[in-house]
Amino acid sequence: MITREHCAALDAADTLAHCRARFDLPADTIYLDGNSLGAMPANVPARIERALKQEWAHGLIRSWNDADWYPAPQRTGNKIARLIGAGLDEVIVADSTSVNLFKVLVAATRMRPGRNVILAERTNFPTDVYIASSVAEMTGCELRCVDPDDIVAAIDDTVAIVSLTHVNYKTGKRYDMEAVTRQAHEAGALIVWDLCHSAGAMPVSLNRSGADFAVGCGYKYLNGGPGAPAFVFVASRHIEAVRQPLTGWHGHSKPFDLTHDYAPHPGIDRMLTGTAPQLGVIALESALEAFDGVDLDVLRDKSVALGNVFIELTDQELKGLGCMLASPRDAEQRGSQVSLGHAQGYAIMQALIARNVIGDFRAPDILRFGFAPLYVRYVDIWDTIAQLKDIISTDAWNTEEFKARKSVT
Ligand SMILES: Cc1ncc(COP(=O)(O)O)c(C=O)c1O
């Protein structure tokens, strides 16, 4: 039997508890949506204010050199590298995840001439499937989408690229990156990992797994802010062979020579396209300081423990209330979120949010709860379950206000 006192004791023993003060979170709010938009690190506003008032207002265009704006995408990529098991100069910040996925899928397909299948997961986040579909059409490939459990069996010698998301956005189910990467390589395919729901939530081992390419976003567990730029990883062994399709001037070896012909940068910079969204890069770079000194194995242990407590409390408190566990019970197979299915999921989530307990909803019936281990407390889990129990058992969700769909769910 888990009690609130037990959760408070877990918080008291939590060696990451001090990290919560690195974020500016409203005191009356429980935030379990860092898997959608990370909380704001408290150091970011001062850094942005400096970028605006000093570097832009006074430095003007000189700041590209004098305030070191120009190398910020590389610098920020190098900070992300530690979090995803990549080497220095294998990661760069640019564009959105969707755009980076497009660049990487085209580049990877070009590296496997003679093969014509892009293998993807049917239940992946829609943008991944949409982009893969467009790349397949452009490159004369077939996009083959299968269920997650059928991926490994579907990798054969026609497959050029396996494109997967490490942690599924809806269920939180996690692939064994090392095993699937090995299977892809044994069949002669390349693999692309989308790390949107893993970067910053757990240690990721891209190089130890032998991954070829990866992409991921800056605004979820990396806390870079709404619409933060994304990142892209290319294993250093591939970089010379990579020809990405969006050949903008920032990917050129000498952008300011302004030559007529495109010559790709010899390193990871070739994944760039145009001018960086500089304020977004600065926000992301400073947000990443929240991870300074954080041991990623400890981060993962806490994420697993938060998820386990959530699941145990669901069993204990929500029995008979129509909630179905939609995430793996086994933590080994789980990312940093737990999803519950409920027929009235949308209205229940709106009722929760009205009580300042913030998760989100994914159609048709999934309530998602994300556990960002840097700032989520064990008592938050207890309090969330208590509110859920009250809302469902009293039908507090059953109002026109809570049932009315907003554009962002
Ligand atoms: C797995 C996955 N990939 C990509 C995205 C979004 O990509 P973008 O940054 O291009 O909007 C999301 C957003 O939630 C996601 O969950």
TrEMBL record:
One of its GO terms (biological process) is NAD+ biosynthetic process. Keywords: Hydrolase, Pyridine nucleotide biosynthesis, Pyridoxal phosphate. It holds the Pfam family KYNU_C. The keyword Hydrolase applies. Its cofactor is pyridoxal 5'-phosphate. GO terms for molecular function: kynureninase activity; pyridoxal phosphate binding. Pathway: Cofactor biosynthesis; NAD(+) biosynthesis; quinolinate from L-kynurenine: step 2/3; Amino-acid degradation; L-kynurenine degradation; L-alanine and anthranilate from L-kynurenine: step 1/1. It is an enzyme of class 3 (hydrolase). InterPro entries: DegT/StrS_aminotransferase (IPR000653), Kynureninase (IPR010111), PyrdxlP-dep_Trfase (IPR015424), PyrdxlP-dep_Trfase_major (IPR015421), PyrdxlP-dep_Trfase_small (IPR015422). It catalyses: L-kynurenine + H2O = anthranilate + L-alanine + H(+); 3-hydroxy-L-kynurenine + H2O = 3-hydroxyanthranilate + L-alanine + H(+). The modification N6-(pyridoxal phosphate)lysine is found at residue 220. This is Kynureninase. The gene is kynU_2.
